[in-house]
Design a protein that fits this description.
heterodimer, A: mainly alpha, ABC transporter involved in vitamin B12 uptake, BtuC, about 0% strand, globular, B: alpha/beta, Rossmann fold, 6-stranded mixed β-sheet, 11 strands
Chain lengths: ~300, ~325
């Protein structure tokens, strides 16, 4: 950031100044779309204990984007192609549809190592590209075009619609696969469908936070929400709220400081998680009901 | 699998149409000369079983004999290799919501952040597509009815006190009660339970056994329960099915769990002893092959299983329990 974007004492005028830039408005639009999507998909991912699969799918975005740039295509195509592809490979080869199995974790590790190696190859093939590696791995919010925002919105709408369609059976299959299967829920098919949706969501998030820091939006808000509440609907809402807030503050902080966006979003999300853990310790003895919380906090 | 003879389905349809006496005598489960084959090996064959409305039936037998396989055949997950199987008068796998199922399992992951009520609710409508809308609960009568039913069934199993806690943090006995509530929530006519007392301590075994016995009476639900120890459920049982390699014996516990019947069934000398408090101990019996890595097969002492068919049982050490259980009980005392 240049020197004239430092914070003044008037926060309102600072924000107004920031939003006069088209690139920042686009960044906020893209960030909000990505945050909502990541929080919802991440909530299911945490419930299914598939964080490792999510991480691997995210890392597949790195060689994807590197290959796309090397071939002169938009990085977005690389992210989507490789993330969804890696998700499909994991889904097709893992036998257990319930998620989080031992076999799946070994397989996921194999896929992850190979994708990272491919990423390194593409980076070394394209010598002048080395400067871009940082933003592929750790995120960037500069240069988000209105066209990209439209694509992000379209993909997010499609993924969220699909999640809304399969939401309840997906929870059933995640929590209780044997009973769900006996009730006629297509457990394995849902597992595959979810991984593909996870791939698409990860590809979106990667474009803001980079491949290494997708968890800032995918895992942290969901994990924080699940620490705070055991109610599914409330947890989903909290995850979305936390993800949106940390993204907004992260974008603002990155604009007014010399440090990268990935650092800020991750740090804010981490702060939320630490607070949620403290809250969990404080309320552990009493439960998380409204009265219990009040009692634990000393308000009655 | 062969379809049922025409006259049979006619009779069943008639029974559903009239709610008279014939309905009461309708068999919810019927196996005739049924056999199960898993990866080329015949687990059991020539099995004849009939379970009537509201009956509590235990499926017993050594480890690896295919007790859980019987449940899978009834669920329609695995086809019977031969013979005829009817569940609620239909082919297995087509009765859906009228069957409550409790699979054999270990406990829920302690980190699972979902409430007991949510797990019970999934039993009610977890197979419906879409997502539940939180606001709809206040306005739709169906939502209210669903919530009332969940509340009722949780109360029935005595889980009200902990149903709102994360299920991963509940004890084994508490989780098992919530899972029984989940299996019951659709008012099934048939409950299929796969070792629900497994991994519970002795007081919880007795309590959950009593609960299942009470439910089968008060809710008019037929229960088919796989068990490795008959003693906790013995007071509540109507009938037992004893599976052995190649055959099966069915009847009341007094008919089946006898020295004569089991010796004939297993083809080797078996002795049934009765402890002073009525518990049964089976001594001798074959060591069942368990090539599928049944998770009990590794236990050193629990070789005969069935009903504590271990050598130690004869020396008065474990009346119908495996040695592991005994050690646990001993620690408590």
């Amino acid at each position: 950031m240049s020197a004239d974007t430092g914070l003044s004492w008037n926060l309102v005028s600072d924000v107004q100044q920031m939003w006069q830039l088209d690139s920042m408005v686009n960044a906020y639009r893209a960030g909000t779309i990505v945050a909502v999507l990541a929080a919802v998909v991440g909530w299911f991912m945490v419930l299914r204990r598939q964080a490792f699969a999510g991480h691997t799918v995210a890392l597949a975005g790195f060689p994807g984007a590197a290959a796309a740039v090397y071939l002169g295509l938009s990085a977005s195509w690389g992210y989507f192609g490789f993330c969804v592809g890696a998700a499909a490979v994991i889904a097709a080869l893992a036998r257990d549809g319930a998620g989080g199995g031992a076999e799946e974790s070994a397989l996921t590790g194999v896929v992850q190592a190979f994708t990272l190696a491919c990423g390194m190859l593409f980076v070394s093939l394209y010598k002048g590209f080395l400067n871009g590696t940082d933003s592929l791995l750790f995120g960037s919010f500069l240069g988000v075009t209105p066209g990209q925002v439209a694509v992000l919105a379209g993909v997010a709408a499609a993924v969220l619609a699909a999640i809304a369609l399969i939401g309840r059976p997906l929870v059933f299959a995640s929590v209780d696969p044997a009973v769900a299967a006996a009730r006629g829920v297509p457990v394995r098919l849902l597992g595959v469908a979810f991984l593909v949706l996870l791939g698409a969501a990860t590809a979106e998030v990667s474009q803001i936070t980079g491949s290494l820091l997708v968890f800032a939006l995918l895992v942290m808000p969901a994990a924080t929400a699940q620490r705070l509440t055991v109610r599914p609907a409330l947890g989903l809402g909290l995850a979305v709220a936390i993800a949106a807030l940390v993204t907004w503050f992260g974008l603002g902080a990155a604009y007014f400081s010399p440090y990268p966006i990935g650092f800020w979003i991750t740090t804010f999300a981490f702060g939320c998680y630490v607070l949620a853990q403290l809250f969990g310790f404080a309320t552990r003895r009493h439960g998380t009901g409204r009265r219990h919380v009040a009692r634990a906090l000393g308000v009655s | 699998m062969k379809d049922a003879p025409g006259k049979d389905s006619v009779r069943k349809n008639g029974a559903i149409a009239d709610t008279g006496e014939e309905h009461l005598h309708e068999n919810l489960v019927e196996l005739r000369q049924a056999a199960a084959v898993v990866s080329g090996r015949t687990l059991w064959g020539g099995v004849d079983v009939a379970v009537a409305c509201g009956e509590f039936v235990a499926v017993l037998g050594p480890n690896g004999v295919g007790k859980s396989t019987l449940i899978k055949v009834l669920l329609g997950v695995l086809p019977a290799a031969s013979g005829e199987v009817r569940v609620l008068g239909r082919r297995p796998g087509t009765a859906g919501g009228e069957i409550g199922y409790l699979p054999q399992r270990r406990n829920f992951d302690a980190a699972l952040r979902i409430r007991g009520t949510d797990v019970v609710r999934l039993g009610l409508d977890g197979d419906r597509w879409g997502i539940p809308l939180p606001a709809a609960g206040r306005f739709s009568t169906r939502q209210r009815a669903a919530e009332a039913r969940i509340h009722e069934v949780i109360e029935l199993v005595g889980a009200t006190a902990y149903a709102h806690r994360p299920i991963g943090g509940c004890s084994g006995g508490e989780q098992q009660r919530l899972l029984i509530a989940q299996a019951l929530v659709r008012r099934p006519r048939l409950l299929l339970l796969d070792e629900p007392l497994d991994s519970l301590d002795l007081p919880n075994q007795a309590a959950v056994a009593a609960l299942i016995g009470r439910i089968s009476r008060s809710q008019d639900v037929a229960v088919v329960m796989v068990a490795h120890d008959v003693n906790p459920i013995l007071p509540y049982l109507d009938r037992v099915v004893y599976l052995a390699e190649g055959g099966a014996a069915a009847g009341t516990p007094a008919e089946v769990i006898t020295t004569e019947t089991l010796t004939r069934l297993f083809g080797t000398p078996v002795e049934v002893l009765q402890a002073s408090d009525g518990r049964l101990v089976v001594v001798g019996g074959p060591e069942a092959p368990a090539p599928h890595g049944d998770r009990h097969a590794g236990a050193v002492v629990r070789v005969g299983a069935g009903m504590g068919m271990n050598a130690e049982a004869g020396t008065g050490m474990g009346a119908g329990m495996d040695a592991g259980m005994d050690a646990e009980a001993g620690d408590v005392r």
